[in-house]
Design a protein that fits this description.
By secondary structure, the protein is mostly helical. Among the domains are: 59-78 and 89-155; 158-257, Serine Threonine Protein Phosphatase 5, Tetratricopeptide repeat (Alpha Horseshoe); 565-658, Alpha Horseshoe (Serine Threonine Protein Phosphatase 5, Tetratricopeptide repeat); 666-737, no CATH class; 753-838, Serine Threonine Protein Phosphatase 5, Tetratricopeptide repeat; 842-968, no CATH class. 67% of the residues lie in helices and 3% in strands. The protein contains 52 helices and six strands. A six-stranded mixed beta sheet has the order 2-1-3-4-5-6, covered by helices on one side. A hairpin with a 4-residue loop joins β4 (952-955) and β5. The protein is elongated and about 125 Å long. It starts with 23 loop residues before the first helix and ends in a 6-residue tail after the last strand.
């Protein structure tokens, strides 16, 4: 407990405008500047004086002793029961003043009210300036500025003390506008002049509403009155300018102060801290030591959040060491700040140790620890601490901050029950009336998938601010209903509220999810008109919007205009290019990022691994793997999965298995990648073995797991097994199949020739089939020669996607395979009329870090002659081994010789020939193709692998084919 002040009368003495020597206590409780007469009359007899000097100190000493020990009720009873006749009642007045001050310190408003009743009961004290000033202060310290105002209004006369006390009361309770209004009333309607106590309260109020212009006006007033040289006023000015972000003004005031105390330095440190200038904070600490000051607990508590905000655990530890050296580490505020710093810097175990050793925990201690677990996403730990807080410490009660710290842990649907329990507790204890708490519940309900509950809480907020609307709009945009987010925005506008930067960010996100390019451009126009384009969050959100809308050029223009490109900005562009399957651009932007000296971390590296997968650029992928190893990024679970995926999609399933085996943590995502990898590389049975192993390890598969399993069954012709897993997915694991799962099963049945069964499954689907399902089944109809079913499917496919060239190619190929050349010409004529063009067969191969591309029939390459000669030699060798051109693969009405010549120009044959020409004997040839490999190229590749004794890996748009010793991993089923 803070030490109680001496008797009231000792405070009120005339003092000069500027002091040079003040105790630390006076910094916290400045003395008044107006005198109060304590002269005694000269006609009192000696007995009266003797009684006063002997009895008055005894009463005050008893009251002081009881107040310091916290026995306020006993002190009140003593005061009530004191019937001894004291001269002029001054001892009683002093005692009541001391007791009121103690009630303020201990926030015991009930006892304070009883003292107020005593003051009102005695006529001589009813309008006493000193006691009423103490009453105003007591009520404000107990959080009841309304009672302070009632005391103030009830006075028949007022002096500057009372005005200062009320202005301070409003400022202390964050009623900043009321504080400023009282100050204006003071200077405009009274003859009192504000003093060095008035101005600090007013400057703090200006800081509270971030009105630096008004603060500057009051600064000028203080200068004219000669008060700016006072250390209290100077400290308040430094604090105000720092809080408002005007650091140059803060520094200017600080440097001109004729006298500085430790509070001055701490105010300057806080200003730098609140504006993110961490290094300047640390530099000031060194200057403090050089000036002969020793940092106090306020200095340490100001510095630690700087380290926490920067995530700089090393600096936080140094500050911890300084606190230990100065003997400040046992201060409760310092302990709490240290726990908070360690948890925010990722050292949660250190925070737990400090928490366990803290024998004087208060609500801030518990809140800091709960916040640490919540930020880590440890739901169990967060709620366990919340329960312990209520059970282990009777003196600590949950408050609004506790609720705000718990709610971020509620991120998934499974936390919905706990969230509702917390909501009920908050409702019973009145926390739901707090705007921040209500907004946090809105956000938490949206994250847990209960959009109706979020709206219910929102509609229950009586005075909805922009922040309230933001909580709902942002939650809807991020968690499943972007259209409703836009609808609520229009309601917000109808309510007369203007959006802020957070609203704009949420609207951009909603438009991105909905791919509303037109609305997105309108928002972009609003951003430009209101000068928000300089905000990095808004700019990055706009980039993401254009990427989602497939407007990569617009995103690139925004990116190029940004002067200070943050890591998030680079990551957004990398992820965007990867998402839009522009791997060359991804690699280009990554190289640009490195050349600009920006250190890539997990997200950037994951995007580049995906680009290597899309390009089938194995060498680049291996180089990036080495980079990730050196940068110690492979320990990240997501990076590990990306490396695993890169090897699997480059046809290196053995290396993928090695990466998988080396993962310290194998989550479901890692298993999913490996299962899908084995499936697409022709090892369907191995994929199913992995799935069964997952089951034995009690790992619960998800929807992506079953996509991998069903694809593996489809590629391996394991129809019965696939149907069994499809049924188990629903019955055993409770996973409702989505369109992706149905597409896999339809593809599996179609490849096996079970076309009627595939059609039956489509008719039983709860959703309408999309173009992917119809195009897959159409390919199967062509493969199995079912023209009748194929024609019906073709009609539905072209109705769904009439502007997609590959659909017309599929229909054309169906008719060409059955020799229906008139229908082929009709389909191609329709394509021509619409303006669609068939994608040419395109293959590529990576050699020595460079990607070489080949288009079917291209004879203009620099190495075209060598490639033709290489193929001619190969054709002779494989013909001797039994190869015969399969001209049924040429779906054009040509002569036989022309068809054979067409087959020779297929892009995968050109790429294989080039690979053999440019690589050493025994090395593996790896080729990628944008279309499905044709039957003739497949047969040729098998014979080539035997003739040259090389492994040839071809990745088409469906799967991998590993050719070796005249055989293919697909077992001729694809």
């Amino acid at each position: 407990m803070a030490k109680l002040a001496p008797p009231v009368s000792c405070y009120y003495q005339t003092c000069p405008t500027h002091r040079t020597n003040r105790s630390r206590h006076s910094i916290l409780t400045p003395k008044a500047s107006v005198s109060f007469s304590t002269k005694q009359t000269h006609n009192r007899d000696s007995h009266t004086l003797k009684t006063r000097t002997s009895h008055e100190p005894a009463l005050l000493q008893e009251i002081n002793k009881l107040c310091e020990s916290g026995n306020l009720t006993e002190a009140l009873n003593l005061l009530r029961n004191d019937t001894r006749n004291v001269v002029s009642g001054s001892a009683r007045r002093e005692a009541m003043g001391v007791l009121l001050q103690a009630c303020g310190y201990q926030q015991d408003m009930e006892t304070g009210r009883r003292v107020h009743e005593l003051v009102s009961a005695w006529t001589q004290f009813r309008n006493d300036f000193v006691l009423n000033t103490r009453l105003v202060t007591m009520y404000s310290m107990c959080g009841s500025p309304l009672d302070s105002r009632m005391v103030f209004d009830g006075l028949q006369g007022k002096n500057l003390f009372v005005w200062n006390a009320l202005i301070s009361a409003y400022t202390r309770n964050q009623l900043y506008h009321d504080s400023i209004n009282m100050f204006i009333e003071l200077i405009s309607e009274t003859d009192f002049k504000p003093d060095f106590f008035t101005f600090p309260c007013v400057f703090k109020a200006c800081a509270g509403i971030l009105d630096v212009r008004l603060g500057q006006v009051f600064h000028g007033m203080a200068m004219k009155m000669g008060l700016v040289l006072d250390v209290f006023v100077g400290n308040a000015l430094v604090g105000m300018y720092g809080k408002c972000g005007c650091l140059e003004d803060a520094v200017q005031v600080f440097e001109k102060m004729p006298e500085r105390n430790l509070v001055s330095w701490n105010s300057m440190i806080r200003g730098f801290s609140e504006n993110g200038l961490s290094q300047e904070c640390y530099d000031l600490v060194r200057e403090i030591l050089g000036e002969g000051f020793l940092p106090d607990d306020a200095t340490i508590v100001t510095l630690l959040p700087v380290s926490a905000g920067e995530g700089d655990g090393d600096m936080g530890m140094k500050i911890h060491a300084l606190a230990v050296k100065l003997g400040l580490n046992e201060e409760l505020m310092v302990k709490n700040a240290l726990m908070d710093m360690y948890s925010k810097c990722g050292y949660l175990s250190e925070a737990i140790v400090m928490f366990g050793k803290n024998n004087k925990k208060n609500v801030v201690s518990w809140n800091s620890m709960i916040g640490g677990f919540s930020r880590e996403g440890d739901v169990y730990g967060t709620f366990d601490l919340l329960r312990r807080m209520q059970v282990e410490d009777e003196n600590v009660r949950i408050n609004e901050v506790t609720i705000l710290n718990v709610l971020p842990a509620c991120l998934e649907e499974q936390e919905l029950v706990s969230l509702k329990e917390i909501h009920g507790y908050s409702f019973r204890h009145g926390f739901h009336d707090d705007e921040l708490v209500a907004n946090a519940f809105v956000a938490a309900y949206t994250k847990c998938g209960s959009l109706s509950s979020a709206q219910h809480v929102f509609h229950g907020i009586e005075n909805k601010t922009v922040s309230s609307w933001n909580a709902l709009i942002g939650g809807l945009a991020q968690n499943g209903d972007p259209q409703m987010a836009l609808d609520f925005y229009f309601e917000m506008k109808d309510a007369g509220l203007d959006p802020d930067w957070y609203t704009i960010g949420s609207l951009i996100l909603a438009c991105a999810h909905l791919k509303f390019k037109r609305y997105g451009k309108q928002i972009h126009g609003f951003v430009l008109r209101n000068g928000l384009e300089c905000d990095s969050f808004i700019s990055i959100s706009l980039m993401s919007l254009y990427i989602h809308c497939n407007q990569i050029l617009s995103a690139r223009i925004l990116f190029s205009r940004m002067e200070d490109k943050s890591l998030v900005c680079w990551n957004t562009m990398l992820a965007g290019y990867t998402q839009l399957e522009l791997p060359d651009d991804t690699l280009h932007i990554f190289r640009q990022m490195l050349s600009n000296g920006v250190q890539p971390y997990e997200i950037a590296v994951m995007s580049v691994f995906e680009a290597c997968s899309q390009l089938s650029a194995l060498r680049l992928g291996k180089e990036l793997h080495c980079f990730a190893l050196k940068a110690k990024l492979v320990e990240d679970m997501f990076v590990g999965c990306s490396i695993l995926d890169m090897y699997a999609k480059n046809g290196c399933i053995e290396q993928a298995q090695m990466v998988f085996d080396g993962l310290t943590e194998k989550d479901v995502a890692a298993w999913n990648v490996l299962i899908a990898g084995y499936g697409t590389n022709g090892h369907g049975n191995k994929a199913l073995e992995l799935f069964e192993e997952m089951y034995r390890l009690w790992l619960k598969p998800d929807g992506f797991t079953f996509i991998g399993v069903l694809m593996a069954c489809s590629h391996a012709g394991l129809v019965q097994e696939g149907l069994t897993y499809f049924k188990e997915m629903q019955d055993l694991y409770g996973i409702e199949p989505k369109l992706e799962h149905y597409a896999c099963v339809v593809d599996m049945l179609g490849r096996a020739g079970q076309l009627e069964e595939a059609m039956r499954l489509i008719s039983e689907m709860p959703e309408e089939p999309d173009a992917r399902i119809w195009s897959s089944l159409l390919s199967s109809c062509r493969s199995h020669g079912d023209l009748n079913m194929g024609a019906k499917i073709a009609e539905m496919l072209l109705e769904l996607e009439p502007g997609k060239a590959e659909n017309y190619v599929l229909v054309s190929n169906l008719y060409a395979g059955s020799g229906k050349w008139d229908d082929v010409r009709r389909v191609r004529q329709r394509m021509k009329e619409i303006g669609l063009q068939k994608d040419a067969g395109h293959s590529w191969i990576e050699l020595e870090g460079k990607v070489h591309s080949f288009i079917a029939g291209d004879n203009l390459l620099p190495e075209s002659r060598e490639i033709r000669e290489t193929w001619k030699s190969l054709e002779e060798k494989i013909t001797d081994l039994g190869y015969r051109p399969n001209t049924s693969c040429v779906l054009h009405e040509l002569e036989e010789e022309e068809k054979i010549e067409r087959l020779r120009g297929h892009s995968e044959k050109l790429a294989i020939s080039f690979g053999l020409l440019k690589t050493s004997k025994g090395s593996t040839i790896r080729v990628c193709k944008n279309l499905r490999i044709c039957l003739d190229c497949h047969n040729a590749a098998k014979f080539i692998s035997k003739a040259v004794e090389r492994e040839i890996v071809v990745r088409d748009n469906k799967r991998f084919h590993h050719f070796k010793d005249g055989l293919c991993s697909c077992a001729d089923y694809w």
